[in-house]
Amino acid sequence: MTDRPPHDALRPQAAAWFAALRDRLCAAFTAIEAEAGSDARFLATPWRRPTADGSDGGGGEMRLLRGRVFEKLGVNVSTVSGSFAPEFRAQIPGAAEDPRFWASGISLVAHMANPKVPAAHFNTRMLVTTQGWFGGGGDLTPMRPETAESREDASAFHAALRDACDRHDPDHYPRFKAWCDRYFFLPHRGEPRGAGGIFFDHLAGPDPAADFAFVRDVGEAFLEVFPRIVRTRMAAPFTPEDREHQLIRRGRYVEFNLLHDRGTLFGLKTGGNIEAILMSLPPEARWP
Amino acid sequence: MTDRPPHDALRPQAAAWFAALRDRLCAAFTAIEAEAGSDARFLATPWRRPTADGSDGGGGEMRLLRGRVFEKLGVNVSTVSGSFAPEFRAQIPGAAEDPRFWASGISLVAHMANPKVPAAHFNTRMLVTTQGWFGGGGDLTPMRPETAESREDASAFHAALRDACDRHDPDHYPRFKAWCDRYFFLPHRGEPRGAGGIFFDHLAGPDPAADFAFVRDVGEAFLEVFPRIVRTRMAAPFTPEDREHQLIRRGRYVEFNLLHDRGTLFGLKTGGNIEAILMSLPPEARWP
After folding, report:
1. Which residues of A are less than 8 Å from B247 in CB distance?
2. CB contact at 8 A, A212 and A126
């Protein structure tokens, strides 16, 4: 066990953090629904990761809320372990030496009923092979990024993430913002998915506890800023044209997730839970 | 020029056939719209294939009809030529020797307003590199494949394609039907896209004129059978539940096209016309 990464010792805390953050996020979102006069609740679907030999592969819980403010809000936590199939080992740091892995994380996608409220995505995770690292990020997708309101929302979102980054490393925000801009881009359309945010992967600084503290702060920042943006915009009036435009923008979101999102494609190829992976797809989309 | 495939000589006829078939298909579909009391017409958008050096790369025409029976019907013809980029040469028969290509074809996707009418896809094409071949196929996607009506439609569709195949080669139908079943399958869902049909590629028999005659017969078969199926079902009553179910099945169609369809992915990677390639996506889809 001497060749195990120090992240091994963080596994219980990491899994507990992702679950606790999930509970706080869900509470924040149902509170918003209540403010809008809705008693919408999350529907929870636990799932187990199937393994070829019947061993315990872990599992997760998908929570889905269909409400008045959140047209479709999916929050998934999972803690899984197993062995990477031979064809994936070369792509995963530390898996060529030993294919066993452990992974825990939270992911969230919010598609909003009101087109004036931006959609949002957030996820953070810890991976352990013979190496250990953190990954994650959050990004905002206003339907009309060019409006003053959308620029204000994007600015608030970026400010919150920048503060979280700056508390840990002055290089984090510029690096992770640029990574997000590169990642959430539709090359076939020549357009970004939205207004960006931050994206990071294979984060493995000298002290895993410090990386974990950063990841927790990213979660806290999202928990503070996204509900704030939602509350600012949820009562904004909108037209049928705004709704139609939102549904077309959601089509682009589908294109990104199915054509380009590495997480989605990797999940589908490695036999992850289909419903949890495709939870990110919008409730309704149009290609007129 | 002695090393050119015999398909070279067929280029003008092939391009003319695809365009003529397009006109007949469009006429058949607008006739159906008229029978339903609609004067919906195709909107035609010509496009040119951009080339790095400004040379003539050919182009095509996308025709889109949004009608009462056909909620979204896209028909595209194109005749393009150029050179395959180095990264694609190994995948294309005959392109390793000389990267130049010529391609002409027709493709069609029909998403229906009435959930009791199956969606359909059809395409045929001729490719010329230092080799020449035909490809194409057609497949039917009933929304509820298990009903008696859907089985009747699938049976009529398969019978028409089988007749076309059998007139040319007794091996064609069983081989191309099985190929279609393998191809139009969603591995992440473990389910077929629809009720199948035929699919073939790299068809290069001893006599290209005979292959071309087969491809024409496949077009004639589709032109005869699909409008017939549409007329049988277009007035069928349906419920809001049928419509909701149709929108969810269309979500699966999107998943197939963006995750698995080689034609879509190849087109996007090789800088094809985005709107023409994504014309296949449904006007509206749901992931509730």
Report:
1. 284
2. yes
**Cβ neighbours for B139, distance < 8 A, ≥ 6 positions apart:** B120, B121, B180, B184, B193, B194, B195, B196, B197, B198, B199
B264 vs A67: which has the higher pLDDT: A67
Contact A283 B281 (CB under 8 A): no
pLDDT for residue A170: 97
Asked if A72's CB is within 8 angstroms of B188's CB, the reply is no
Tell me the per-residue pLDDT of B228-259, one tens digit each, with 9 for 90 and over. 999 999 999 999 999 999 999 999 999 999 99
pLDDT (average), residues A248-252:
98
Residues of B in contact with A287 (CB under 8 A): 72, 278, 281-283, 285
Q: Pick the residue of A62, A109, A188, A189 with the most B CBs within 10 A to test the interface with B by mutation.
A: A188
Per the structure block, which two tokens stand in for B74? 């896209």
Q: What is the ipTM score, two decimals?
A: 0.90
User: What is the pTM (predicted TM-score) of this model?
Assistant: 0.92
Q: What is the mean pLDDT of residues A58-87?
A: 94
The Cα–Cα gap between A57 and A63 comes to: 20
CATH of A6-280, one of 3.40.1500.10, 3.40.50.150, 3.30.160.100, 3.30.1300.10: 3.40.1500.10
**Which residues in chain B have their CB less than 8 angstroms from residue A189's CB?**
274
Residue among B188, B189, B283 whose CB faces A287 most closely: B283
pLDDT of amino acid B1: 43
Q: What is the Cα–Cα distance from B118 to B140, expressed in whole angstroms?
A: 6
Pairing of strands A197-203, A132-141: antiparallel
Tell me whether residues A288 and B287 touch, CB distance under 8 A: no
**pLDDT tens-place string over residues B71-107:** 999 999 999 999 888 888 888 999 989 999 999 999 9
B166, B225 in Cβ contact below 8 A?
no
> Is B121 one of the annotated active-site residues of the chain?
yes
- Burial of A77 from C-beta contacts in 10 A (0-12 / 13-18 / 19+): buried
pLDDT band at B130 (very low <50, low <70, confident <90, very high): very high
Residue type, position A38, single letter: S
Chain B environment of A288 (Cβ under 8 Å): 66, 72, 283
Pairwise CA distance, residues A218 & A221, whole Å: 5
Tell if the CB–CB gap between B254 and A259 is shorter than 8 Å.
no
Give the Cα separation of A140 and A196 in Å (integer): 6
Domain locations in chain B as residue ranges: 6-280
- Residue in chain A nearest B65 by alpha carbon: A288
Residue in A with minimal Cα distance to B73 = A288
By CA distance, what is B64's nearest residue in A? A288
Mean pLDDT taken over chain A: 95
Q: Which residues pair with residue A63 across a beta bridge?
A: A44, A75
What whole-number distance in Å separates Cα of residue B163 and Cα of residue B173?
8
pLDDT in tens, A125-144: 999 999 999 999 999 999 99
Contact in structure between A42 and A26 (CB atoms under 8 Å):
yes
In this structure, chain B runs to a length of 288
- Which H or E run includes B134? strand B132-141
Distances (CA, A) of A157 to A33, A166, A227, A253: 21, 14, 11, 19
What is the identity of the amino acid at B105? G
